[in-house]
Every structure is written in C-alpha cells, then in structure tokens.
Amino acid sequence: MTARHQGVRRCALSVLLLASAMGSAAEAETLQGALAKAYRSNPTLTGARAGQRATDETVPLQKAAGRPALNATGTYTESILKPTISFTSPQRTVDATAQLTVPIYTGGSVRNGIKAAKTRVAAGQADLRGTEASVFSQVVAAYMDVIRNGAVVALNQANVNALDVNLQATSDRFEVGDVTRTDVAQSESRLALARSDLQNAEANLITSRENYIALVGEAPDNLEPPPPLPGLPATVDTAVQVALKDNPDILAAQKLREAQGFDVRAAKGTVLPTVTAFTQGGYTNYLDTLTGSVNGSQINKQAAAGVQLNIPLYQGGRPAAQVRRNQALESQAMEKEIEVERGVIAQARSAYASWQASLESIQSNQKAVDAANLSLEGVRAENSVGSRTILDILNAEQEAVNAKVQLVTARRNAYVAGFSLLAAMGHAEADDLNLEAGALYDPMVNYDRVKGKWFDWDFDPAPKVQSTRTVDSPAQNANVDPALAKP
Q1: How far apart, in whole angstroms, are the C-alpha atoms of residue 415 and residue 354?
Q2: Which of 106, 157, 321, 397 has the fewest CB neighbours in a 10 Å radius?
Q3: pLDDT at residue 84, rounded to an integer
Q4: Within a 13 Å sphere around the CA of 101, how many CA atoms are in the beta-carbon half?
Q5: CA dihedral in degrees (121, 124, 129, 131; nearest 10)?
Q6: Rounded to 5 degrees, what angle do the CA atoms 53, 458, 439 make?
Q7: How confident is the model at residue 383, as a pLDDT?
Q8: Which long-range contacts link 390-395 to residues 24+ away (Cβ below 8 Å)?
C-alpha cells in the first residue's frame, strides 16, 4: 500500500463503534447511542424478532406429528321415542371413550419435517442478523445526513449573511458612484439565489431529522462526530472473501436450500407404509333404564390395544406432485443462493469502491476548500485596489461555499460507504459494534425455550409492543449551530 493510500486511510472517518460516548455536553448524542436506541426500539427490528419467534414454533409443530395423541369423548343420550319393536332399549345412556395413539414409523416424513423446520430456524436467525445490519446501515446514513445537512445549512446561512453585507456595501459604493447599477443587480441576484439554496438546505435538514426520528425513535440532539470504523479491509479481494464467509444473507440462502432438500425427503415419505400403536377403552352406563337387564348389566366396559399398519396403494397422484413441487422449490432455492452470492459480491465491491473514492474525494475537496478560501481573500484584496470586479468576488464566494459543501458531503459519503462495506462483509451487527444497549437479543434463548414443549396449554402471555411511537415527537426545524459552517 502506498504512503498516499495510508494517509487517506488515516484521514478517513473509518468504520464503527469501539469508542464509548465521546462528548463534551451531557446531552450530546453519539452514533453508538443512536444505534443502541434503534436496537432496543426500532419496529423493524422488534418485528423481525417476533417473526423469528414464530419460526421457532415450526419445530414443535413438526415434532407434534410424531408424538403420542390422546383423545377422549363423552356422550349423553336421551331417547325421545323408543323403537316400537325393541323392548330392551335403554331410555338414556352415558358413554365415554378414550384412545391413545403412538406413531411408530411414518416413512421419514416427520423426521425430515423436523430437520427442515430446524434448518429454517437457522435461516431465520441469519435473516435477523441481516435485518440488524440493514437497520444499522440506515441509522448510520440518517445520523450522517443530519450532520452533513446541518453543516450545509450553516454554510448557506453564512453565505447569505456575507452576500447581504456585500449587497449593502455595493449599494453604498453605488451611491457614491464607485460601482455601477449592474454591480448592484449582480449582488442582488446572488443574494436571492443564496436564499433559495438556504431554503432548500433547511428543507433537506428537516427531512433528515424526521428520518432520524423514524429510525431511532428520538429527535437528534447535538450529534457528536462519529468514531472511526474498525475492521475495514485492506483490499477489495479481502472484503469479498470475508463477505462470502460471514454475510448473513448468504448463510440464510444456504439454509433455505438445505430445508427444501428435507422437504423433498418428507414428501417422498408419504408413499411409504406407516405403523401406529394404539390403545382404547370405552365405558357405557344405561342409568338403570335398560329393560330386562340382570344385576350389574347396566354398565358396560371395554378395552383394546393393537398395532395398525397403513399401506398407501394409490392417492390420486398427490405424493408425486408434492415431491415434484418440492424438487422445483429446491431448484429455485439453489438458484436463489447463487443470486444472493452474486449480489453480496457486487455489494462488497461497489461499497469498497465508493469508500475508496470518498476517501480520495475528502483529500481533494479539502485542498479545494483551502484554495477557494485563499482565492476569495485574494480577490477581495484585489477588488479593493480596483483590479477585480464585484462579479469576481461573487464568483469566488460561491466557489468557496460549493467547495465546503462538497467536503462535508464527501465526509458523509466516506463514512456511510465504509459502514455499508462492513455490512456487506457481515460485520455490522450488534455483536460487532459493542453497543451499550444492555444484554443483546439472543434468538437461541426463545428457540431453546420452545423446541421441546409438549403441553397443550403452555401459552405465552399476550404480546406487548416493544418499539416506541413517535407521534408525540415535535416537528423538526432547521435551527443549527453557526459553528458548523467551519467544516
């Protein structure tokens, strides 16, 4: 790596969250704090966790098909009109029956169904990791948008103030005949355009602040500069290699492909014999209404046990259709895995290129800002001795503002591209960011809790909302600290 590129890396706003809150003011917000708030209360994340808990339940659902089943029925019968040819029919009866069935062999359908469900749980957990990275990427972009747009507003406000002073000075000089009416008109035009740019910048700042609220749940308050991003790759090939190994989308696609393979095996099991053991018992009480019965014959009891073999001979072609359908879905999952892999490779390479370009842009724009400031000072000095026109000053001021806006934009783009690169590599999740959000959500906790449950009445409490609402948050404004005009 060249010394130039090493310098670029050192000046970069690299990529994320090893530092604890850095701030002079107690009320200042850090990027780490914003991510922690989103981790706790963002509805996309909390909803994805609930969806994963629903996926966890597919394992006990599949296991239930291979577990014993116990059924009991009870019947009370009152004869309204007894048969005319029967003299012994009871007037009323009470019947009770119970049956216990135990699947012994199901052709592998239950076993493979359980394996498919477990594999989909693993895929869902990988998807949850991807959702975390996606939400965090949005939060980082929103955080940096607020910082950038705040600086752009401050720059435009300073530009408006400078052009306002310039217009007043030009008007004064016009009164004494030092400049022409054209110079005044040019100053008025530039001031009007600057005010228009300021209004657009303020609207963009309000939009970015509202987007921040939608993601984080709270309004941005005195955002601190973000900490450096750790773990960025030295080369694009390294980024791709790490992404292929750690990206959660690839892992999820692999697991879904495996699950479809188990579905094919489960469908093939429906053409095989099944063996079920059973036991059943019955109880009937005629309630002393059985005419002509001998002593004790008012009650009838029975019990039986056995094994049932079921051999499917023909099912209308249904099993073959199910197998072919699942084979087609397995083929689709194979192609989807390649599609996801392609997308991740492209994402990693493009994010790396954007990150590198933004780092170079930071250096170039910093030089442009320094040169524009020097040029503006020189043009003003030359105008004072009559060798430069008012238009030259206006052009130099506009170039200076444009260079500063491009610099803060390049800083924002470098940080967001760096974080996007980490996300593509699979290293932009809660475990990677050292969030100060308390205990992190572990999807295995719920899976281990429910995977072996047997009881039919083992319900969970009624669900409660985990995310926070923003309906009470105040509408945002475009107020900024004038110090932001010094990028």
Answers
A1: 10
A2: 321
A3: 64
A4: 14
A5: -160
A6: 40
A7: 80
A8: 390/166, 390/170, 390/179, 390/183, 390/186, 390/187, 391/183, 391/186, 393/166, 394/163, 394/166, 394/186, 394/187, 394/190
Q: Where are the beta strands (DSSP E) in 142-295?
A: 274-285
Q: How many helices and strands (H and E) does the chain possess?
A: 12, 4
Q: What is the pLDDT of residue 395?
A: 86
What's the pTM value of the predicted model, to 2 decimals? Answer: 0.86
C-alpha pair distances (Å), 3 with each of 34, 257, 327, 392: 35, 46, 55, 38
**What are the structure tokens assigned to 271, written together?**
């053409």
Spell out the residues 6+ positions from residue 412 whose beta carbon is closer than 8 angstroms to its own. 144, 145, 147, 148
Mean pLDDT of 190-213: 94
Interatomic CA distance for residues 198 and 157, integer angstroms: 6
Tokens (6 digits) for 408: 């803060």
Distance CA 399, CA 415 (A): 25
Amino acid at 255: K
Q: What is the mean pLDDT of residues 173-199?
A: 88
Q: Which is it for strands 299-310 and 92-105: parallel, antiparallel or unpaired?
A: unpaired
Residue type, 383: N
SS3 state of residue 95: strand
Give the tokens for residue 229.
């991003």
Asked whether the beta carbons of 159 and 401 are under 8 A apart, the reply is yes
CB 351 within 8 A of CB 232: no
How much is the pLDDT for 478? 87
DSSP 286-320: -TT--TT--TTTTEEEEEEEEEEEE-----TTHHH
**Letter for the amino acid at 338?**
I
